[in-house]
Amino acid sequence: MTANRSPSRAELIADVLAKSCAPEDVRVGLEVEALGLVTPGLTPLGGDAGPSIHDLLTEVMHGFGGDPIEDGGILHGVKFSNWTLTVEPGGQFEFSGPPESTVVGLEKARSTYFDILDRLSSEHGIRWLWLGVQPLRSPEQMPFLEKPRYTLMRSYLPTRGTDALRMMQTSASVQVTLDGTGPIDLQQKFQCLLRVAPFGYLFFANSPYLNGRANGARSNRAAIWQNTDSHRCGIPARFLDWEFGVDEYVDFALDVPMFFLQRQDQLIALNGSLTFRQFMENGLNEHRATLDDFRHHLSTLFYDVRMKGHIEFRPADCVPENMQLSVAALVTGLVYNRAVLADLRSWLEKTFSTEDVLNARHDLATKGFEARFGKYDVVGVASELLALAAEGLKHYEPEARGFLDPLFDLVHTKETLADRLVGRLGDDLRSKPPEILETFLPIRW
Question: Which of 27, 124, 250, 395 has the fewest Cβ atoms nearer than 10 Å?
């Protein structure tokens, strides 16, 4: 590909496959976002109270090493030898770990992240909140990290959805990345995980509060993402075709509007004015599309399950430490053993329609174990999924089977994490003193 020629569709597909497929060495990756609160008062980290994000990251580098990650003169992360600590728009501290061959390996990789959080807690009175949505504050009450990419997103995304700023500034998740062994394997995993995604919202539903009040939903984060940008969020109905694979994903991405173009250290705001296909065919002034441009574009697509050099499973709210690896154990157990993956596909294909999946995405996140999946009781379907995951782990990684135990417990009690939290704290947090919240919210200190 020459400097003045845009990549072809075939080159884009080949680039995605080259980064997605690991024929002999599949691995699993983990990302965790923690919402920081400053004591006393549990005010948002990065606001007027407490240390600045810049000072905290500088302190991390002094104490733990690592190199600064900067953009537009804004320090927004630290790069270590095999993982990164970055800060999201609302001050969320995100761990992006190295891909590991086992789920147990992720636990070791995560330990330095926890050491850093503990050090900052000890020295600055910061509490780390393991919830899917900041329970007390609206976006207007939250700080904003002025990284150039975030600034462009803050300008464009609210034109696409009413909850875009709430997504950026108040939400937090646990995400898992997975490899494929080839185009067909990647397609099968992608298709199965799309249909499992509603259960990601169910098993890890942990955001019952908005602006200090419970509104009945178990995962408000699910609705927030749905109301962010219909072009690039949720589960597009077209994805739920069993023949929809890498080629089709690239075609779909080509027709999603772009919201920026990066050249060296500069971002050019596009605000949805052209799709990547239009950019690839016609260019933009003197600029021509590159593979790097398409990679950046793929990173702006936030579907519940997406392809971005690997498969990324994104439905899970941020959950307490003892359940973060449960997300990885669930999906690894379901798709990393060939026999279980084949059984999973056969069961899903025969039993559940596209409409069932799309309805379940909303219903399971809202109603929890009171919902249904198509005509089936959700408790029974959830039990079957966990049994398949346990069988897959028995063959792939028996040591990780225990990470499923909290999920079996949820199904047994028919209570989500959100149900349990509201049961302890009630529907209204606004009258609760901070020390009460510290007692009952899942906080690390």
Answer: 395
